[in-house]
Amino acid sequence: MTREGLAAAGEVLPAPPERIVHLGLGAFHRAHQAWYTARADDAAEWGIVGFTGRSPAMADLLGAQGGVYTLVERRTDSDRFSHVGSVVAAVPGDRLDRFVAAVSAPTTSVVTLTITEAGYRLAPDDGPDLTDPEVAADLELLEDAFAGRTAAPPRTVPARLLLALGRRALLHGPPIAVVSCDNLPSNGRRLASVLLGLAEAVSPGLERAVADGVSFVSTSVDRITPRPDQELATAVRAATGWDDAAPVVTEPFSDWVLEGEFPAGRPAWETAGARFVADLEPYELRKLWLLNGAHLVLAFGGLSRGYATVAAAVADDDCRAAVERLWDDAEQLLPRHVDVPGYRASLLGRFGNPRIEHRLSQIAEDGLTKLRIRIVPVALQERRAGRPARGCAQGIASWIAALLRGIDLPDAGRADVRRALGEPEPGTALLSLASEPLAADQAFAATVSAAVRQWGTP
Ligand SMILES: NC(=O)c1ccc[n+]([C@@H]2O[C@H](COP(=O)([O-])OP(=O)(O)OC[C@H]3O[C@@H](n4cnc5c(N)ncnc54)[C@H](O)[C@@H]3O)[C@@H](O)[C@H]2O)c1
Ligand SMILES: O=P(O)(O)OC[C@@H](O)[C@@H](O)[C@H](O)[C@H](O)CO
Asked: What ipTM, to 2 d.p.?
């Protein structure tokens, strides 16, 4: 099947013009932002050029199909198949020349990102992590590049993005919006802080140019999208007859809430269901603390108990009870207008969808970074309010117990985790790694130790 054939059948649009650049061409972008863009009333005006984050594989697969792929919306009892045509070019991430050209093009109005939380290379103060050797090396490359000296291409996403945005801003290109779609609170503000921190380290002129020329938009993104497997391609072939090399499976539910300015315009995403709000915080915290926080507890607790998927873990009474206790803590901190009881009830249904094979091992990747963002802040606020934060303690304990059990959890912070595991008191060292203040809080640390024993260590 080709784009031309699908367009002739009225299933996708003939390639819309490239006006959006996306970085991180994984499953989620294709199930979410690309889907909203394809469904917007003005879809014919907005094509996406997608760059892979690290490996070129998806660019090869999707590029060979003209960017078109099948989206499978998986209900508890049936599948719905559709074709998505908003991605018009798929390019390997190491094609930096093409990336800089795409971002610098005056016709480009929006850059979106799904590069995982670890991809932001954030220091604890939300600036760029200059202790990370790759970030430090990229800073030198950026200094050379902006001073007009020959430089190798930077490797980290913040440096690649800064190079492209800096070129555009210094060429006096029109202002542009950069939209983070990763599961980080205040993701736009954090991205701004990393990029402007790096820019400032290169030169004050670059920092000013980027600050003036870029609008950083924060968003809360919500659609459970497991990593596609071979079984999906087989199901797509059986249902549609197409040997699609890059299908995506997702749940029927979808939500996208955005806060920020689009100085050069944007697709009419609201016509596809997105919401634009003046204050994103309550929505993003509800989603991150309840959905993503619970996912972590199910992943660590479920893996310890030998489960493989979210649906299996949430069917376990102890795992579900741990999730409910975490939600009880988070609910204390969220405003009423975001309907926490309704969201909790809908989450239990979404997690329980047995046909969405959401692997716990995928969710557990980079668990340290995610824990610090999704559970630690709730615990700190609850403790400051004088409450015991037992649900958070149990959640953090699920991570510690999984590691003490020897479960391999791939993590960008793996070296620190290994060091902590080698300490005389590894449980205490792991809690310190998650949060120094929580480790120093004796009552909370004792609750965590008791909960680690409850999760069961070998
Ligand atoms: N899958 C979901 O259900 C979901 C839902 C909401 C938000 N998200 C956000 O989207 C992100 C990606 O999810 P996905 O399902 O597309 O995963 P994926 O594994 O399919 O794709 C991840 C993409 O990020 C790139 N990447 C990974 N680590 C990177 C790094 N350190 N630096 C630069 N690029 C890197 C990869 O190359 C790939 O392009 C998540 O981490 C999350 O922040 C995902
Ligand atoms: O994608 P991550 O790795 O940030 O987190 C894993 C899951 O919690 C996440 O993908 C959720 O499924 C998603 O955030 C739902 O909207």
From this structure: 0.98
Confidence of residue 2 (pLDDT cuts 50, 70, 90): confident
Q: Give the three-state DSSP class for 263.
A: coil
* CB of residue 333 inside a 6 A radius of ligand 1: no
Ligand 2 centroid to residue 425 C-alpha, Å: 31
Report how far residue 370's alpha carbon sits from residue 349's, in angstroms, rounded to the nearest whole number: 23
pLDDT on residue 281: 96
Domains and CATH numbers, the chain: 3-278 (3.40.50.720), 282-455 (1.10.1040.10)
Please state, as a whole number, how many other Cβ atoms lie within 10 Å of the Cβ of residue 67. Answer: 26
**129 Cβ closer than 6 Å to some ligand 1 atom:** no
- Cα of 114 vs centre of ligand 1, distance in Å, is 5
Ligand number nearest CA of 118 is: 1
> Which residue's CA lies nearest to atom 13 of ligand 1?
28
* pTM of the complete model: 0.95
Whether the per-residue pLDDT at 219 is higher than 90: the answer is yes
Query: What tokens were used for 293?
Result: 């926080």
Locate the ligand 1 atom nearest the alpha carbon of residue 182 and give its number: 43
99 has a pLDDT exceeding 80? yes
Q: For ligand 2, what atom is nearest to the CA of residue 296?
A: 8
For residue 422, what are the contacts with CB-CB under 8 A and spacing of at least 6?
none
- Ligand 2: lining residues by beta carbon, under 6 Å: 117, 183, 222-224, 291-292, 295, 363
Strands 214-222 and 248-250: unpaired
Residue nearest to atom 10 of ligand 2 (CA): 224
DSSP for residue 252: S
CA 275 to chain centroid, in Å, comes to 19
Residue type at position 240: T
Are 433 and 426 a contacting pair, CB within 8 Å? no
Sheet with 176-180, edge to edge strand ranges: 87-91, 47-51, 18-23, 110-113, 176-180, 214-222, 255-259, 275-276
Alpha carbon distance 184, 418 (integer Å): 25
CB 254 less than 6 A from any atom of ligand 1? no
C-alpha 453 – ligand 1 centre gap (Å): 33
Separation between Cα atoms, residue 36 and residue 49, nearest integer Å: 15
